[in-house]
Records
---
Amino acid sequence: MKSYLQLENGVIFEGNAFGKIEDTVGEVVFNTGMTGYQELMTDPSYYGQIVTMTYPLIGNYGINLEDDQSDSPKIKGLIVREKCDYPNNFRCELDLDGYLKYNNIMGLEGIDTRALTKVIRETGTLKGLMTHRRLPQSKLMDILNEYDNSDAVRKVGTKESYTIKGSGKHIAVIDFGIKNNILESFKNKGLKITVFPSNASADEVIGVNPNGIFLSNGPGDPKDYPDIIENVKIMIDKKPTIGICLGHQLIALALGGDTGKLAFGHRGCNHPVKDIKKDIVYITSQNHGYVVNKVPQDMEVTHISLNDKTIEGLRHITKPILTVQFHPEASPGPDDAHGVFDEFMELL
Amino acid sequence: MPKLNDIKKVLVVGSGPIVIGQAAEFDYSGAQACQGLMEEGVQVVLINSNPATIMTDKEMAHKVYIEPINTETIEKIIRLEKPDSILPGMGGQTGLNITLELHDKGILEKYNVKVIGTSIDSIKKGEDRELFKRLMEEINQPVIESKTIATIKEALVYAEEIGYPVVVRPAYTLGGSGGGIAEDTNELIEIASKGLHLSRVGQVLIEKSIKGWKEIEYEVMRDAKGNCITVCNMENIDPVGIHTGDSIVVAPSQTLSDKEYQMLRKASLDIIRAIEIKGGCNVQLALHPKSFEYAVIEINPRVSRSSALASKATGYPIAKVAAKIALGFSLDEIENAVTKKTFACFEPSLDYVVVKIPKWPFDKFYGADRKLGTKMMATGEVMAIGNNLESALLKGIRSLELKQYSLDHKGVKKYSLHELKEKVMYPNDERLFYLAEMLRRGYRVQKLSEETGMDEFFINKIKFIVEEEEKLKLTKVENLTSDRLKGLKQKGFSDKGIADLIGVTPNEIYELRKMWGINTVYKMVDTCAGEFEAMSPYYYSTYDNEDEVAVSNRDKIMVIGSGPIRIGQGIEFDYCSVHCVKALRNLGLETIIVNNNPETVSTDFNVSDKLYFEPLTEEDTYNIIEKEKPKGVILQFGGQTAIKLAKFFDEKNVTILGTSPKDIDAAEDREKFEELLEELDIKRPKGKGIWTLEEGLDIARELSYPILVRPSYVLGGQGMEICHDDSELKYYLSDAFSKDKKNPILVDKYLDGREIEVDAICDGEEVLIPGIMEHLERAGVHSGDSISIYPPQNVPQNIKDTILRYTKLIAIKLNVKGMINIQFIEYKGDLYIIEVNPRSSRTVPYISKVTGVPIIEVATRVMLGEKLRDLPYGVGIYQETNLISVKVPVFSTEKLPKVEASLGPEMRSTGEVLGVSDTLLGAMYKGLIAAGMDLSHRKRKILVTLRPKDKEEFKDIAIKMNDMGYDFLATQNTAKYLKSIGIEVEVVKKIGEGTPNILDTIRTGKIDMVFNSPTKGNDSKRDGFMIRRTAIESSVELMTSLDKARAIVDILYSNIQGKDLRLYEISQYDKA
């Protein structure tokens, strides 16, 4: 069915709908990864976003049940140049269209995704509506203005705490929408893991007496979560603390740093990050729209983006606190920076 | 890390002549490397024997030596130039092998020259199969079960152990030559014996066959700090079993999930870390289609054909970055030339699909064994970019110049489904069309995937195209809707493809498109999928919404490139296109180049102001013209590919700079051309077109033998032969008429004279002949296959005067503006014209270099209206140099089974080398050595078979050989003759006379040289053909031309020594 992507700046793209054909609103972002569409659709950090894939052929190897990064896809919509109707791979269990349909997510194909990407690049991330009937601009704005993603972490993280057995040290994980492969990476280190919901109190977390605390990735603007930041302030004083992505931003804010919104974010599998101390560059998987733009007083920058020089990793000068903005757990993307997990282990 | 400041002068080794498996990609990477080094203020000394390259232009390096690539020459250059470093990884396998040899002989150490980039130890770890295997085991990378063996017996034992089929790969060879898949003992004996012979170290690898696995390549880079990146990965549509050079390849991979992609990426990076690559490297992997099992096939620790493709596919300049890494820069210090904001330390992201399709020489070599396998046979390739797979594939197909505009191939209709199935399982160059035909007849996708090992994903894409084609066949043009047409255009269907299927003219489809506003838009190749603003003026077409090309107000000229490299249209034409663009840019014009060959310099986006990577068809080029509205289009430098467009552009009122289409036609149309010569009172060999055998015999009597016969509808000497008597003529004609009854056969008197060739520039009033070239071989050998000598050694002044007069008459009569190439025969004091090409030719780079006349620049300026008299090179015949230059052709015949190996009127060479010296003998010596001939002074064993008419002429050659103490072997009749002139000779049996016969004798490897004067070639059943093939396949020096044999024997007899010959740097050519 002929359908549209209507952007808040008035730009309209026309394509054909697939998946569940139902109006959907979100923040329109692009991802430059050439593989890994399934991982990113199920990555909770994308909650509330309409994702445009810059690679034109999506769905080639279908969907399998193994590569999910959470229990279901979390994106609001998917925009592709061409979806694959005849996927093939030995693990392929579903096709893209059926998968989105079942999960009530709208897709659009036949879009000039490069043109859309350039719009986002030039104007920054925009809100947009995916719809099968075009709306007048004023109506569109009414709908877009209603869009609110400020309690995203509560929606995608676990509601109850739970424990994953392990023979090694004990790590407390605060789940803001954690990707499966982060948990997998901890499991592979033999850790015992207690996962807490995002609203767990510091006392609760410290109460299980973990060797360290991990703040996970997750969706949204870290400044939308002042309660969590307060909690983090307490925790980082008590226990070694590590963080990835949103976790990294929250720790920075808790220690007096600041964050801001990137024009169009870092989303893809090809982001070069320099480990300053080791003087080596990793190609990393990234997915963030916000960034730490002021380093807290007692922290030093350990990693920077080679593309735009933004902060990609921090370490506390005296305390056992270590954070990275990128995704060392990969999935999708390269695991060049997997060594970060070893550094985490040293802190525990 | 900053630049290593002890590197001040670097010796760069080129790859030598173009052969199958080592082609123009190394001119591109070599030129990029030189540029990268010079940008950092390093002195560059270059050696490459191939004059038809951009990298051997004098401005590409501080010192350029077009000399044989061997240790003797390089040692001399090192003594002379005192480089502190050598960069081996840019000259393909040739560059690596020669550097290893220089190292092993202690030459590098002696002169304190260090290897920069990937080290000798690392090269050995990557190249030596045993070392490589051991290293892979250490780092837990799976390799295919295999063993290096040095004897047939060992091979058989090991094959029993791992089970057939097994793959045979010789160590240290190009393009997998000498390898193959053996299904049983007999095949193994055959393939392994060949492989052992061809390997530089007498070893072959026997490995377990993993036929049917996916073949995936990663182009990776590493710097000295240990930063590693993947530039691109590529998936072969044809699975393991077909050489990647002969496979259709897509970038990026299409059927790999992120898990598989990252698993293989990690493997590739782990490997280059372990090997300690410093620069670029190609990693080939096999992936089981039904599991995560994979195996490392091999690596190439250097730039390669695949790295050139990856550079063009992504916009990431691998060779240039590799050169900077060799200087000590790290990836995070090297700027990304496309964005100018980011660094070379990132991984390109593509937002399009790239398809590469090989170009095979089987249209020229129709007798060849076309079965594809582990041995590469393609001479060139095309690349196409689209934003879906179908469009990239269809663009690729029409770029091949097979007259195919869709997958609907008339030639495959005749086969039954059984035959088609056989043909897709044992694939040849036309597999894609067989496969499409099977789908057309309802064959199941899944089954086809099982039979071929091709992923269902790809077969479904092909099926989509086939289904649309079938629908079009049932469509009337009035029922075609705007939406449907737009959909087809988006999927890459050409106007002509659609028109042919519907049954209308392409123009009707074009007009519908215009009416409905369905126009191409162009997208940029920017390495980053649009994430950052980019500066690369590198575009491909789509039928999308947004057009990214900004058309400037400047005057612009569009240059049409020459497409894929094939026999007869090689790298020389790319050289011309690049020089034309350079000349235009120097004149302040905006330049646009259109081409589809990823190997070349012309498709480097730095060369022109804008590069359109597009098929060179009428529609695709005209779309760009409509967009850019260039002031003029230049066709003269793009070979026949570009010239073919002249008529169409003329109809569309596109301004063609230079010679007009009407005049081009007058030169190419035989009848019109004859009239013209008659009018000018210029002689040509007498001849006539005939339709029957009887007519043929009559005209032959009238002309008297020998006669030259050829079909009237082909170019480039295809199907051309010389007949010496009625029986040969009858044989030829009956065969020719059975193939094609609709066209006449042309019969000409064959003049056994001296062949002379000129490339001239005409401004409409005057001509400039930069140099006259004399061919060593008498007429009858295709000019591209002849040894060409400049300045001419045996052409008297009066003939030179006549050459100038005729050239001027013809060029002016044809209103030539720009280049013209004319071939003459001097026969008994008279000058005859045999061919005129109103365009640039393959000798232009060679003659430009040796005379110092920038021919293309002059021609380009003339085309824009300047007069020769106002340019610094004047008119008439340009002053001859004192040095003598010899261009020697190089063949790849050993790589093409069942292809005729004798010299004749059909062109067969793939490349060329240059020899320059102060004497003819010296120049010949250098040229032949550079072409790979062994001219060492030692006793030789020569096997001779002569046809009766050559015996007398061979006498002096034989006597000289005898004087040098050579041993002779000959068949009965030749032996009798040799004995009659007092030469001792051992008689060998002819093929039908029992064993061991002549072929067995050649195969023993005890023969150094075979001289066989061909009777009638091209018939694989003939004795001569088999003798020649056996010689070629056993790597025995083969001579088939008396003239060439005499020249070689003269050199050997003269006792000339390489070490005594002076080297000449290119700037000395016109000064010495």
---
Amino acid sequence: MTVKVGVVVFPGTNCEHDVVEAVDSVGGCGRLLWHKDAGLADVDAVILPGGFAHGDYLRTGAMARFSPIMDAVIRFARGGGPVVGICNGFQILTEARLLPGALYKNRDLKFLCQPTRLRVASTGSVLTRGLNVGDELDIPINHFEGNYICSDRTLAELRETSSIMFTYRNNPNGATSDIAGISNKTGNVVGLMPHPERAAHPLLGSTDGALLLKGLIGGG
Amino acid sequence: MSTAFDVAVEVSLRDGIADPEGLTIERALPALGFSGVSGVRVGKSLRFVVEASDEAEARQQVEAMCERFLANPVIEDVDISLSLVS
């Protein structure tokens, strides 16, 4: 059965079509959901894509967290449904407190749009379940606020529960402990700053992002 | 009867969190001839008016707004000032 992936569009989201295309290319079925929708229809997984939801006013993700669809997303996530936040989507998941910590301005105050090499640090999530710890992936980033910040206690918890999914080989933005992506304790909610959909076709220079989306589709 | 309060909320980065903007400003000041400046921190300020029965209730409301929306407690601290609308 084809896995249906709902891709949520907020005003200011700009990566939704790329994500749908990439999901379809690995055998899933991506469909757009509007932020004012009350429910998630019958999707098997949800992706919050990148962009500038609600203009990133106040803080990145701060407004999007109150969009009507988020109640359904939070319920779906708490019920074990796979939810992935990419870039701005990751920021929204932290503001919604589905993931701990926060994303702050890059250390050098530069907007970064470049390939990055990631190391898979845990396979206990819906994105990384098909991979091995230590695998390296080339996936680009595209952000100004990707510097992951959390308290020492949160960091210790992330480590204890193997919830750090990806680390940067060469930390581009100052993120705590080189963190590029994390999950919740049960691994069904994942947030990452790199864009897997931008590494999902040979023409894009890397297909490593497709491996992550296959993980999402494969077990969804 | 409700009373109107002018509210000022100062949002600042929590101690211990690096502030690249503040650091950049601090480094730029000597070039303009201002030496001896340290500890520059950049934040934001919000101004609005709240109607409440008394100052304690107004403060409670603003604290709830900050906790839920106006600031992110993971990285930010808030300082709230209230005064009667003159």
---
Amino acid sequence: MQPYELPLSAAADAIRARQLSPVELADSVLERIGEVEPHLQAYVTVTAEHARRAAREAEGDIAAGRYRGPLHGIPMALKDLIDVAGTATSAGSRVRANHRAQADSAVAARLAAAGAVLVGKTHTHEFAYGLTTPQTHNAWNTGRIAGGSSGGSAVAVAAGAATFALGTDTGGSIRVPAALNGVVGLKPTYGLVPRHGVTPLSWSLDHVGPITRTVKDAALVLTALAGHDPRDPASLATPAVDYRPGAGADLTGLRIGVPRTYYFDHVDAEVEAATRRAIGRLQSLGARLVEVGIPMTRYIRATQWGLMVPEATAYHENTLRTVPELYQADVRILLEAGELMPAGDYLRAQRARTLMRQEWARMLEEVDLIVAPTVPATAVEAGQESITWADGTVEGVSDAYVRLSSPANITGLPSLSVPVGHDAAGLPIGMQLLGRPLEESVLLRVGHAYEQTRPARELAPTT
Amino acid sequence: MSSVELTPLEAARWAARVGLPLPADRYAVVATTARHIHSVVAVLRELDFADTPPAPAYRAEQENHDAAV
């Protein structure tokens, strides 16, 4: 096994035991990037020189007894919406040509302090306003979409071109590409991970979180990321938590909500079957399954759009007037049309969010978490614009991919996407676990228990 | 198109009023997209919000479990 193939937790164990040097690991990951990038195009920028220097420093520190923890010497990628001092944050847009970040974002600073080694910045759908990331190819089939908007991050992790990565998630942008590329994605509780220095799409829906090979890896990264930062007005003052799940896989007593509405409607048969098989495994580990009715489903899409569209337009107000021609066509039209949304529609969406949060809180008194597919279909062909369901209904690709993930953005609840198999074409399928606010530990425990019932996951067969 | 739906010229006037002068070749596409967005968000008018306040900024952990009281 080559070092780039190691999941974070295994690499960390090997580094701590001095069986693996951070320099060997960084070199292996950089070599892997060189192999797969021509096929995948996950990266905007590869910071090879920086990575080798940081890896040498990590090696020296660890040899001198200054081991900082499980991220020390681990190669990581950051979505190119996340500021790193002295480098460009392109946001996937020509609007950001010649950009240079003056300072580290809160998350980049925390990961640097934990000793993680930046290997590069990954592609995003332009300003995170889309679900495909057209610059990047799916790690399992280069003719398929990467998913988005954190497509580069998910593809890099799936292919072994980063040991972990960060993404952002406004309607599903961590979990959608994670599901479509067979990796783990965690959207934490709103406010748990500070967003200072991360380019916003929609302030009241935006989250930052990890994309990793395993659930345990996601727990290690979240432990380094979580915690208050007064520079993000939504940041929560929470105590430090070690999110690493325990070794046990016993779920006895846990009440798992299985939706009887919404989450299995207009879902591909293979996706539904794989999710229900995974739910069966959770039951066999001792969990009790409880059917739940998802509240206010008719208003989910309207609330998501009512919040996201005017907030995104507000952020881009100046550049939409000065350099509109620099935006891609799909993003420009949404920003322009967003200018025409009355404030009443925005306030109605804000009030609907209040109602939805109350209803989800009631539902989560009856169960400890909800399980559902992450996305209703596996990765579609690049360029495909719609999905036709069995009953003849036609749905836009982006609408379909965001449909099951956006409730967690509206409510701020944590959601973890875990790979649960592949369809007949060999494309990955994801299951999401949704929990109560700040109960990431429950989701990570259940996801980790599920992973222990499965053989170790392999990297995408990218050549 | 129903009589209450936005026409390309109205889209152009609305955009101009908010300080976004559109080139003429954008009128129709902006109107079409604005109509689509409107059709999506308009269903929220069905809800009876009573005294429900908006949630423009909120603390996810401060759930009100007695919201119905």
